[in-house]
């Protein structure tokens, strides 16, 4: 059993027990890892009050002190990398090597914002009147509430909490009920690192709707940040309107991955394997529609089939596992329904589509996918690569952009003029050119259209937690 497992919500620097419980299940075995207590309304309000108390203290601290606390948190997370990675594989299912990568990536946000904490500069504005002195400076927004998903149980938390703390904000987090253990471990380590009591509270609940309503409707909470599905994001945005909160929304995607005929095919296949099959395809930036120029289609399919056949599906703890289980039975059912719909409408399968039992889904390639199929329009969130042939650049750009989402897009080309044209034409917040893995703490992650609002990472990620105050002084 990994270390750092806790069973209760964490409020004001202490574990908060309630009588009602729910089970956190291991997606690999479908057995319970542990039962945890389910927060009640009173607990949610206590967490908001605790965060408010912490904010009063935090806004009086200087940036260097906050930076030092964050750096200690970073060091503690890295010291516990092995236990955190094992815990993540246990509750989320991803292969241990990916979990270790996520601890590094997640900790990277803490380190980056420890550095950025010292750089929230303001402006001196040239006056329009001889007797005026104009300045603007940045202040923390206040109490932040956040809701995070299960696919990146550490990174989705650190990339919100670290910039919030760097800015001087306190935080109330509701992690996914499927992966609350990593979030609790992070809060415990933050407390050890010197976070003020109440600066980082974690609420465990199966009743996301109840917690979400209290957090979004509270006047004390001044900023709401969410990562999850577009449907839930829209609902939470509506709820936030009641108190005009600042919001950040990291929502769904439907990433195109385009391989042009002049691409380096081996590099393109390597990039595609990462962009498609990482975390068993359960990422919002996963390649969802793979467009291949018709003249290279056969070659691409041959190379891809070899790589996909070599993927090892199994328990993520085993060193040679490439693909772990999907998160829960409903996720597998959805993947199978999308595949069945595509086959009924004319797609063909490459790969062995046998049922591997439990939450395990065999990796597959679907050829002949068209816009008539559900899999073209929805995030498959599973290890299924949908291949769509195209002839012309203009045609593929039209198809790539013809969705309501705009998170990540990828393309492989060696033609410099095409690289400029296509990267400018793609209506997406992030574009990978000859690269399938683009997330990085130092760069702004986020989407356009119905993929969301705001950016996480980079210097932009700190501004999400700061208000700008303009000061006009007459002398
Ligand atoms: P997924 O289907 O990938 O789990 P969701 O958008 O349903 O994505 O979940 C992301 C997060 O949103 C989770 O923490 C979940 O508990 C939470 N959530 C789901 N429904 C609601 C809701 N109605 N109000 C507030 N939070 C919600």
Describe the structure.
It is globular, with a radius of gyration of 23 Å. Helices cover 39% and strands 22% of the residues. 51% of the residues are buried. The chain is built from 15 helices and 22 strands. It has 475 residues and is an alpha/beta fold. It starts with 8 loop residues before the first strand and ends with a strand. The strands form 6 sheets. The chain has a 7-stranded mixed β-sheet, with helices on both faces. Strands 9-8-7-10-11-21 form a 6-stranded mixed β-sheet, with helices on both faces. A 3-stranded antiparallel β-sheet has the order 5-6-22, with no helix packed on it. Helix 1 packs across helix 7 (208-217), helix 2 (63-79) runs antiparallel to helix 5 (155-167) and helix 9 (265-277) packs across helix 10 (297-309). The chain folds into 2 domains: 2-251 and 451-474, Aldehyde Dehydrogenase, Chain A, domain 1; 255-440, Aldehyde Dehydrogenase, Chain A, domain 2 (3-Layer(aba) Sandwich), CATH 3.40.309.10. Adenosine-5'-diphosphate (ADP) binds at residues 147-150, 176-177, 208-209, 212, 228-229, 232, 235-236.
